[in-house]
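Dataset card, provenance and construction

Sequences and ligand SMILES were collected as paired inputs. For each pair, a complete structure of the chain with the small molecule in place was predicted and serialized as structure tokens. The example below shows a pair involving zinc ion. Curators did not alter the output after generation; any descriptive sentences attached to a record were derived from the structure itself.
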Amino acid sequence: MRSKRVWKRLLGLQRAVVEDVCVEDDGKVVVAVRPKARELDRCPYCRRRCPGYDWGEGRRRWRALDLGTTFCFLEAWAPRVSCREHGVVVTAVPWARHDSSFTREFEDTVAWLAVHTNKTAVAELMRIAWRTVGWICERVMAEQTATRDLFAGLERIGVDEISIRKGHRYLTVVVDHDTGRLVWIGSGRDRKTVEKFLDLLGAERCKQLRLVSCDMAEWITRPVAERCPNAAVCYDPFHLVKLATDALDDIRREVWNEARRAGQRQLARELKGARFALWKNPGNLTERQQLKLARVQALNQRLYRAYLLAQQLRQIYRTGFDEAVALLDAWLRWARRCRLEPFVKLARTITEQREGIEAAIRHGLSNARVEQVNTQLRLIIRRAFGFHSYDAPIALAMLALGGLCPSLPGR
Ligand SMILES: [Zn+2]
């Protein structure tokens, strides 16, 4: 009797009874167990007590955490019950998740290791295949999301996309600005994906959203505008700065091509070398780059004008709200009549999207936090290569970045 209690303690068993322990010829420790009477005949989905159906496939084994250096398994009957709602199903057992051949403690340990260590370490230490790690992550994640409310208190979120497999596949990512947590990952980058998230969020919580930061992408902004009446959409400042840099680069290329065609080799060479000087913040320029810039000013008025336009637009993110709005007005007046087509076009875009740009300045919200999560997410997805499906790396990412990683058993 005493030793059975020791075994129970050793295995961290709760709501179960140890019946017998034996060591098999190959050294495996097999512990025969049964659920406590109160835990018998329960449906694994709704936990309701159900009438028995049959003995299923007889006795089953679950891999438990190793005991020192030896493998350990739990063994028990796995009868089937007939649930009113879920039909004929294998009965729930207190020591394992449904449809798993590992104990809960084993799976929690694997999930914890998958989040905190590398691929080889998990597989070697736990003596399982990397693919199995993927299955386990999915099960743990499913349980965590079913028992926790990940969308509680969401007010300020960032939505972004990431491409995986060299752009063959896209994921839509939602991050909570206030906690920096990954809240949701959806497959695809289109309106439907965003709508799926808003469906999950529910009408009531859509109303609670105050700010949504994103790029100027209609597949995000349209559904948000339609369903989240109280949310201000903020366009990411980096995105706007990038549009200006792109416009500047268009002009640089244009001027460079003209110079080449006109046989002005010296000018073409200098322009090519000026690329980085043009991109940098004026304050960060090296002396050499400052000289380059002075040369650009002397050599080509158009390019220098484009440079000033791009720099000036950045300024709006470096001051207070009122000044920024005034700066933006002045910038738009200038850009509209600057006779540089890419900037005239950009001025049109900014005029159309002005509300979102101003909201970002007013609330000081950028997608930086989202970008941070995305960087980590990419690393996880790369590491997860070899999993059986796309759901597995997503599960691992939610465990790691969504704050869903289980704690180690017994701690
Ligand atoms: Zn049921």
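Derived descriptions for this record:
Residues 43, 45-46, 48, 83, 85-86 surround zinc ion (CB under 6 Å).
The first strand starts at residue 16 and ends at 23.
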